[in-house]
Amino acid sequence: MSSRMPPVPAPLSNERPGCGRATERACAQEAGARDFPERPRVAAFFDMDRTLVATNTAAVYLRHQRARGRLTRADIVRVLWALVRYRLDLVDMQTLSRKAVEAIAGQPESELAELCERIVRDEVRFHIYPEARALVESHRARGDVLVLLTASTPYMARPVARELGIDHVLSTELEVDARGRFTGRCIEPVCFGSGKLDRARTFASAHAVSLAESHFYTDSHADLGVLEAVGKPCAVNPDPRLWWTARRRRWPVLRFREGAREASRRGGA
Questions:
Q1: CA of 216: how far to CAs of 23, 52, 75, 205, 228, in Å?
Q2: Which residues contact 100 (CB under 8 A, 6 or more apart)?
Q3: How far is it, in rounded angstroms, from Cα 104 to Cα 115?
Q4: Cβ–Cβ under 8 Å, residues 201 and 229
Q5: What is the CATH number of domain 43-268?
Q6: CA-to-CA distance for 121 and 125, rounded, in angstroms?
């Protein structure tokens, strides 16, 4: 009997030298990563007020401030009138936001954060549409990146996002000084209009998200820039201008029902 070892067979055409059974899968994955780059991620961006939440959270906040004696009746009337003018496109959100932030100059950030947490826990969460909850869950089940994209501040947006299990919040940030108090200025850009689009694009770039494959849900024509940037725009309870635009461009329109929201509130009380 010969003592020589048999020659090592040459690798087959679909094998690589050094790929035994134990490493075959790892080698295949490595080759696949080279041949097929990782697919961009898909995100679902959601506006907040009147899209996920059946109310204007700023108005809820003002009512609580009035109850605490922080605002007079005249203050409330002025702010609500400003909101009406915004809805009628008579004033832009940047101007409205800056005026509102000036009013809280000197207030501790922690105080506002605690108040908004309480407002969301005690009231706002009952105004979240059941259909909106189901919509968020459907995107979670598909593995989409969930993003709350709102002109509101993070103090109201973050508790709402936690209630819905949304991981990322893009909102209007407020400047805070070294003592932890508001300076009365926004950190530009305000998350509205072109500023909201900038925030969405920056987020997409940082998280390998393809806007062309992503979704955006909103009620407002002011969000037209983001609606046009994503591949799957959707109007939810749209204002008249957005309803007309969605109809003309054949975008889907969702109608969430107040009745369903009220039933949810009674059931959760």
A1: 42, 12, 34, 16, 9
A2: 58, 79
A3: 13
A4: yes
A5: 3.40.50.1000
A6: 6
**How, if at all, do strands 174-176 and 182-186 pair?**
antiparallel
With beta carbons less than 8 A apart as the criterion, state whether 253 and 238 touch: yes
For residue 53, count other CB atoms closer than 10 A to its CB. 26
Task: Give the Cα separation of 255 and 235 in Å (integer).
Answer: 9
**Whose CA is closest to 249, among 258, 260, 241, 261?**
241
Closest by alpha carbon to 253, among 263, 245, 261? Answer: 245
| 2 CB-near residues (< 8 Å, 6+ apart) | none
Measured distance CA(29)–CA(134) in Å, rounded = 35
Per DSSP, the three-state class of 154 is: helix
> In the structure, what pLDDT confidence band is assigned to residue 87 with cuts at 50, 70 and 90?
low
0.85 exceeded by the pTM?
no
Tell me the per-residue pLDDT of 179-199, one tens digit each, with 9 for 90 and over. 999 999 999 889 999 999 999
What tens digit of pLDDT does each residue of 108-154 get?
999 999 999 999 999 999 999 999 999 999 999 999 999 999 999 99
Question: In 3D, which of 233, 216, 44 has the Cα closest to residue 136?
Answer: 44
- Read off the amino acid at residue 90: L
Higher pLDDT, 110 or 90: 110
Give 23 or 207, the one with higher predicted confidence.
207
End-to-end CA distance of the chain: 88
Residue 19 has pLDDT above 50, yes or no: no
